[in-house]
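Hypothesis: this fold can be encoded by more than one sequence.
Test: take the C-alpha cells below, design a sequence, compare later.
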C-alpha cells in the first residue's frame, strides 16, 4: 500500500468521512482553571479518610470538634489532620479555632456534592 492510501482509500477521502461522522461540537465550556479546580476537588474526595471525614462532618448537626472526628475514622491523629487540611484547602469544610481545639463544618458546596452522590446511589438501587 502506498502512503497516499489508508484503508484502501486516498487520504483526503478518509478525512472527509471522519469529519462527516460528527455533527456537534465536542468542546466543553469550562476554562482550564475550572477543569483543574474540579479535578483537584474530585481527587480530594478520592481518598477514603478524606471522604469519610467529610461525611462525618456533614452528618454533624452543628460544627464538630476534631477530637470527635478522630475516633469516628479510626485512623491516626496525623492522618486526620492531613485529611482535614486537604478538605479545607479544597473548600469543602470551614474551620474555626476555639482554645486549643478546631471545629469543622461542611460548606454548602460539600453538602451539594454529597447530596448528588446520595441521589445517584439511590437511583442505582432501583
Amino acid at each position: 500500500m502506498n502512503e497516499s492510501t489508508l484503508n484502501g482509500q486516498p487520504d483526503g477521502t478518509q478525512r472527509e468521512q471522519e469529519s462527516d461522522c460528527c455533527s456537534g461540537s465536542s468542546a466543553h465550556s469550562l476554562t482550564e482553571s475550572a477543569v483543574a479546580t474540579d479535578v483537584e476537588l474530585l481527587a480530594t474526595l478520592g481518598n477514603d479518610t478524606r471522604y469519610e471525614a467529610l461525611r462525618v462532618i456533614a452528618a454533624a448537626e452543628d460544627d464538630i470538634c476534631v477530637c470527635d472526628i478522630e475516633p469516628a475514622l479510626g485512623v491516626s491523629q496525623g492522618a486526620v489532620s492531613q485529611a482535614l487540611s486537604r478538605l479545607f484547602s479544597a473548600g469543602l469544610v470551614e474551620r474555626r479555632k476555639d482554645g486549643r481545639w478546631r471545629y469543622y463544618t461542611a460548606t454548602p458546596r460539600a453538602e451539594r456534592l454529597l447530596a448528588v452522590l446520595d441521589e445517584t446511589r439511590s437511583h442505582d438501587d432501583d
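The chain is about 60% helix and 15% strand. Residues 14 and 20 are 10 Å apart (CA to CA).
Hypothesis status: open.
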